[in-house]
Write a structure and sequence with these properties.
The chain is of the alpha+beta class. Helix content is 35%, strand content 21%.
Length: 197
């Protein structure tokens, strides 16, 4: 799909999933069993064009759509939209919720109950505030890693300085990718995107 085709497809508030080819994001993908390792929310700006609100190291920011998509491995992209769509008031509230989080630092420990942000937390919180909808599922690291027994716990022990916080609540792009609150806009064959083969 060309950049122009993507722009024609999008509506404000659409959720974009990508697969980032760096070490940490690949480990996130492995731990969740999904190609989706990053997520953001699309908005149209009269001056700047299409932007994506994202929480990435080091902080929450707006990124031009083309730049956001270009970081994904081999152009992998999924676009999902709230079932029934968003009202104009909800779109405005969603934008305000993202605006309020701009500049907040990234949480490298993926702790949901923190003032810091990470990509899927930004999406979850913004939609909860703006539309009263939970996109994805809050779960503990124990529940998350139990579903993927082949995940290397050694990496996560190192990442968490020797001790995995098993009871810590988090939220993942994978749980948002498969949320039944959303419908898939792209690709046309959604069974292709759900799990790592």
């Amino acid at each position: 799909m060309s950049h122009r085709q993507l722009e024609c497809l999008l509506k404000p508030g659409d959720i974009l999933f990508t697969s980032i080819p760096n070490f940490l994001y690949r480990r996130v993908a492995q731990a969740t069993g999904s190609l989706a390792s990053h997520v953001g929310i699309a908005f149209h700006d009269l001056d700047a064009g299409w932007l994506v609100a994202e929480s990435a190291v080091p902080m929450v920011k707006y990124t031009p759509l083309a730049d956001f998509v270009s970081r994904s491995d081999k152009g992998w992209l999924v676009v999902r939209r709230l079932r029934g769509g968003l009202s104009p008031d909800q779109v405005n509230a969603l934008r305000k919720a993202c605006d309020a989080r701009m500049g907040k630092l990234y949480h490298l420990g993926f702790r949901y109950l923190s003032s810091r942000q990470f990509c899927s937390k930004l999406v979850y919180d913004a939609y909860l505030v703006a539309a009263g909808v939970e996109i994805g599922t809050l779960e503990s690291f124990q529940a998350l890693l139990k579903r993927q027994p082949e995940t290397s716990l050694g990496f996560w022990r190192l990442w968490f300085l020797g001790r995995i916080p098993w009871t810590r609540l988090t939220i993942t792009p994978a749980s948002q990718l498969t949320s039944d609150k959303l419908e898939t806009i792209w690709p046309p064959c959604p069974q292709q995107f759900q799990h790592i083969g």
